[in-house]
Write a structure and sequence with these properties.
heterodimer, A: five-stranded mixed beta sheet, 4 helices, 5 strands, globular, B: alpha+beta, 3 helices
Chain lengths: 98, 142
Amino acid sequence: MNIEKTREENTLTIVLEGRLDTTTAPDVEKELHASIEGVESLIWDMEKLEYISSAGLRILLAAQKIMEKQGAMKLVNVSEDIMEILDITGFTGILTIE
Amino acid sequence: MVEKTFKASKESLAEINNFIFDIIEDKCAMRDKMQLELAIEEIFVNIANYAYADSEFKDEEKTATIGVDIEESSGTAVIVFKDSGVQYNPLTKEDPDTELKASERQIGGLGIFITKKCVDDIKYEYSCGKNTLTIKKLLSGK
């Protein structure tokens, strides 16, 4: 999986490409924790994300909990398939999705 | 039913997906495939992480045998996961409350819940020292 991070002042954008599963989730978690300090707006660009399992959802939930304390988080460009998983798990109710 | 045995570690996941989808891919629409992949990952990762967590198991004993079949009459994929680890029925785990706010949601506990939502039937058995979890999914075809 490809993880691309862009920081502009207090906004961090993370572009995910490929599969966010058990094997790739630790990399995403590491990248997130390396950059989240001082971030007030966290944006996940999911356009090129093909797959997400519970290992990936755990990271989104953990990030949401952090960002509720220090700013805001949103998901953008979520595909229909990924949206279905977010829906099943009740994540559409707790995350901001644009 | 075609069966194959894999090392019960997360690194086997890609190999397991290849094994299963080589058999059923041509009957699987994209949506079916993603939902089955989710179920397969959640079940197998559970086995890899927990079935042999006790130190009494030798490395060569830490395996999972996976069986794949298609019920031709109904177009249903049947996938069976067997391990010889500690007895554990994942279906007894309570579903997470999906209505809670983020701050109240537990991190984790989602895997088996996703699995149940992604398949049409799921059954657990324990016999002769083996955990057996069978999932069935009606394939909508390509």
